Amino acid sequence: MSRRIVVIGGGLAGVTAALDCAEAGAKVSLLEVRRRLGGAAYSVLRDGIEMDNGQHVFLRCCHNYRRLLARLGSDHLVHLQPRLSIPVLSPGRPPARIARSPLPAPLHLAGALARYPHMTVGRKLGAARAARALSLLDPDDPALDRIAFGEWLAGHGQDEGAVAALWDLIALPTMNVPAAQASLALAAFVFQTGLLAGAAAGDVGFHVATLQRILGDPALRALEQAGVEVRLGWRAQSLTGGPGGGFELQGTSTEGQETIVADGVVVALPHDRAPALLEGLIGPVRALESSPIVNLHVVYDREVMEEPFAAGVRTPVQYLFDRSAAAGAPAGCQYLAVSLSGAAREMQMSVEELREEYVPALTALLPRARGARMESFLVTREHAATFRAAPGSAASRLQAGTAVPGLAVAGAWTATGWPATLEGAVMSGHAAAPVALGQEIGAARAGTPAAAGTPA
């Protein structure tokens, strides 16, 4: 008789684990409290436009995520840059660009740094020396997780100006905290994997359709085709060991209170929800702090930005994306999404306060916006968007396997070695499946990085 597996959570980690378990011949049920799949990557309909809750970007080195897209049949709905190229905007200055050359790493970025107009020659030389030192660190060294990246940068001659102009352009979107507050271990991993180890690793990938079309809907089809029972609107309340072995899961659905019995379980819930379900079986789970993301959705009556995306320097605008075609913006209009990572301050601001600060900031970056009419200004907030990638966070990231046979944990917050990214979520699902199936898991982590980093 095939093994009965229950996967709790319909994000990328849960979807990946469920597909792997079904492929291994198990009878699989996936339970998701929401009425959709995709977890933290989803779309909402506002003012007739389908808007993603956040601008989830990936890199060429995100091999596991890219393979999942192919598995779901939606890889044709993403675009991968042939070569890394990041437009950088700053008020009152011509646009700049960070682009790689055909040279091997780390020389592939030497020309971009030399031409970068937002740093003095002295700061550029200092940044090159710091990058060299960063490339020599061992991200697996536990001592690095006790050090703040900002502290390390300061010790290597990087002042606030250099951090704001260069290091935070990568640190903020990848780790969802500024460099000053990030774990050095995670920072070393991100910069080594995405920028310093391989020339092509950091080429940026975009979702050219909505996340619902790329992830949520295709995941449902793929799961059903694999024979997975998908139960939406199912809220897990408690998880205990069964009287004859295995597990008993108590929860509620549209049909009322239910009990589900399973041989193996994958708990693929977010970092702020998983501990409550796990503690009855494995004891207290050390809580991870959360870091928020705020997204501003601005629709203009005309095109105001030519680039598909851009970064901001010396402005509160961190990254902005043209989502007009993907979201179905009205003809002639342009819909820009402004992504604000590590947005603790912005979480406390009202919509009007955000409008008063960011509309002028966008106008200062985009000259054509000065004569344009703003048709819409909307805000979406994710209070617990990711775990807080601060020093000491590694100790709270659980392995895929637990002390209870058959009980697995998955999610971008688990011990993948990555910050909270699409890639890390998929890797954790792959690592959890063999645990739930009762197979041996050889890796010490929840997964082994295939090549590296990603803005998320």
Structural topology:
Layout: E1 4-8, H1 12-23, E2 27-32, E3 43-46, E4 49-52, E5 58-59, H2 63-72, E6 78-80, E7 85-89, E8 96-99, H3 110-115, H4 121-135, H5 149-155, H6 160-175, H7 184-196, E9 204-207, H8 211-225, E10 229-232, E11 235-241, E12 247-253, E13 256-262, E14 264-267, H9 274-282, E15 290-300, E16 309-312, E17 319-322, H10 324-327, E18 334-341, H11 344-347, H12 351-365, E19 374-387, E20 407-409, H13 422-436
Parallel strand pairs: 1-2, 1-14, 2-10, 7-16, 14-20
Antiparallel strand pairs: 3-4, 5-9, 6-9, 7-8, 11-12, 12-13, 15-18, 15-19, 16-17, 17-18
Give your account of this protein's structure.
The protein has helices spanning 12-23, 63-72, 110-115, 121-135, 149-155, 160-175, 184-196, 211-225, 274-282, 324-327, 344-347, 351-365, 422-436, and strands at residues 4-8, 27-32, 43-46, 49-52, 58-59, 78-80, 85-89, 96-99, 204-207, 229-232, 235-241, 247-253, 256-262, 264-267, 290-300, 309-312, 319-322, 334-341, 374-387, 407-409. It has 456 residues and is α/β, with parallel strands linked by helices. The protein folds into 3 domains: 4-40 and 211-288 and 390-436, FAD/NAD(P)-binding domain; 43-79 and 205-210 and 290-387, Polyamine Oxidase, Chain A, domain 2, CATH 3.90.660; 97-200. The strands form 5 sheets. It has a 7-stranded mixed beta sheet. A hairpin with a 2-residue loop joins strand 12 (247-253) and strand 13 (256-262). Helix 1 (12-23) packs parallel to helix 13 (422-436) and helix 6 crosses helix 7. The longest helix has 16 residues, at 160-175. The radius of gyration is 22 Å and the shape is globular. It starts with a strand and ends in a 20-residue tail after the last helix. 51% of the residues are buried. Mean pLDDT is 94; it is low at 441-456.
